[in-house]
Task: structure prediction
Amino acid sequence: MDWEKIQETLDSLMEQKRHGQLRGALMMINPVDIAEYMKKLDRENLLLLFRILPKDISAEVFSYMDSDQRETLVESIGDKEITALINEMFVDDAVDFLEELPANAVKRVLQNTAPQTRAIINQFLQYPENSAGSLMTIEYCEFSPEMNVRDALRTIKETGVDKETVYTLYLVDQRRKLVGTVPLHKALVVPEDTPLIKLVDPSLISVSTLDDQEVVADTVRKYHMLSIPVVDGEGRMVGIITSDDIMDVIEEENTEDFEKMSGLAPAEEPYFKTGLFKLAGNRLPWLLILMLTSIFSGAIIARFESVLAMNILLSASIPMLMDSGGNCGQQASTLMIRGLALGEVKFGDLTRVLWTEVRVGVLVGLVLSAVTFVRLLLLNQAAVDLALVISVSLLATVILAKGIGCTLPLLAQRIGLDPALAASPLITTLVDASSLLIYFSIATEFIL
Amino acid sequence: MDWEKIQETLDSLMEQKRHGQLRGALMMINPVDIAEYMKKLDRENLLLLFRILPKDISAEVFSYMDSDQRETLVESIGDKEITALINEMFVDDAVDFLEELPANAVKRVLQNTAPQTRAIINQFLQYPENSAGSLMTIEYCEFSPEMNVRDALRTIKETGVDKETVYTLYLVDQRRKLVGTVPLHKALVVPEDTPLIKLVDPSLISVSTLDDQEVVADTVRKYHMLSIPVVDGEGRMVGIITSDDIMDVIEEENTEDFEKMSGLAPAEEPYFKTGLFKLAGNRLPWLLILMLTSIFSGAIIARFESVLAMNILLSASIPMLMDSGGNCGQQASTLMIRGLALGEVKFGDLTRVLWTEVRVGVLVGLVLSAVTFVRLLLLNQAAVDLALVISVSLLATVILAKGIGCTLPLLAQRIGLDPALAASPLITTLVDASSLLIYFSIATEFIL
Result:
């Protein structure tokens, strides 16, 4: 059934107030789609639908809802219902949700949860944002290394563990140290009396609670894992992170890089959820900085007024020089930023990269200058010396831009800054100023 | 054990030619790390190590190796060994590898594989690049809807299915149509005589062989799936795609967007694997186009020579205007490109987006213009009318840049182009030309 049809059916059931049928219909739909459908409901219908939802999926639907819809719901339902919801949610989802609530609401809600849940949630709330600890879930299967396959399968059946978790068996010793992992598929194809310890994966890969989510994502991606165990400072197992959450991390990190490369402060909410002043505020800092630095380029132009006055082609070529320089720099920096993000390039490669980029700059610059030289002679009837000055300046600008463009992101990474921050807008300004200086120096030398 | 220590141990075992111990050591290391270690080996040692590898992991290690290392290996080992390797690999990895080989080598290799494997691989080689068909693997568990849990677990144990595949049971009817999926964890917690059909997930989500990998990635991410079934045009089950492969797709799509936004032709290989001429060739087309379009900006400057001659501040403000316009446009376009990629914004939102961006432009522009106005009066001792002309031009440029920046990516998407292609370099050029026109019009009006 397609999405249009699903919506229509739900719409008409809502309208006719056929709540029994509606409940049945909702059981057949993916919780992600239910959350999607709820987006267009008003407060009253939202609450109605949410209360009709079968209890076992309402927590999951809740965890997929927009933050402002959750807010609407939370305002409308009582503390008791919220607490029930939280007890039903995966801990990581519950923590995400609580982080959105105002502090006093969190306190009120937590007072009503079971003491054990409360302790765990409080622990979670203390992990730094974007750390492995704040991402992980505690719903995983823990087994003693002494168990065999039969014991393990019986434990799974008895505890009825949840889906986030069952596909890797984590072996934990008496001091809760993680000693190894067994992929469930291995346990399913051997005789039932095989000790789990015999099936352990030879290489044990884990992350620490304080590791940044970027490290977690890189590790999971590198080793093609479905989930990764999280251990505390003493190597004790405390949770797992599953690959579906990693996908969201990857997109989040990429969005942040896109934003930084365009001189935007990272937004925490999707575009339409962000207020006008926040949207403007995210853009202003870099725009101001870059506007002020571009005054240098202006000052250079003012300083060489007399040179510019000699021939209008000298002024008219400024946009071409500045744009080409900016574009060349941005190309090089983008390649570096992606290379760093994907682990293909590192700071130690600087000289190798620089040498490559300078040669690429020469190749690209020669083509661009040749085209410009011919264009100036044929279309603009420029004198040969003038055409030469402009073309040679362009060549020098392109080479310089490639050099600056590849160096800055690597340097930024080296001194602990985000390479994406050193990207295009800043590079454009640097390249602008230096290309103008080159331009006027050459012009002064050869025309005056 | 950390990576440094692993390398040292392997290095010394290689040097001392302790091949038995080396083989033992390799069994303890993750195949991803073995492939990583092999990167630094020369041809001879590469071949040696590869032949020492236990057979059951050599295919996996091979699938993680660099393309040029695979080439080296393939040149050194015989067709028979290659064929054995291919028979051992997952079909999707084997196809990836074969796609890199020259056509006659593929033919030679395929002649030696089992007829059944050959037929499957040939089928795969016909799927379009980046389609679901080319991504999928055929190693998955297929069950008849009549089976119960006991039958299913017995089948798994008997066929010894591999890890890519076991965590979702795919129910396929006699005409090979996919009728439903059962998450393995559900089967493990119910009595063994429960019919599989009772455990089927209510919503069946699949993709078609010809769907683009971006669609696949979006679906898997949206529904938090570990794997997704792939069906052919008639709804028959033909394969699955697992979430670890989806992560690579997500990064690939992001890299492509980064490249396009910076005016780069998408590279197929990592930076250091790409030849100098290819690197230059990927950058030249857009640089040439953008250089030629920036001549328009130059022509506008030349046309208003007389205006510029009146006051050097008019020339000196050009970089500030052009840079601010370019940066504002890029900010807006980046937000749109990300919004489109993540499904948060669509073409139908154009008027809403435009209205938001124009208001953001007014807010941001007022701040920038105010700073500029004060700066011109205090630092540059500009006349009030001149300062006003420049500040008002800046305000108009910022608003226009926001408008162009948000509109182009949405329009591009609408007419079936990649929105990332419409991004910063093109927008910069457009904004440059129009901001200069605004600037000179205002200047002509109010100063002359």
Summary: The mean pLDDT of chain A is 85.
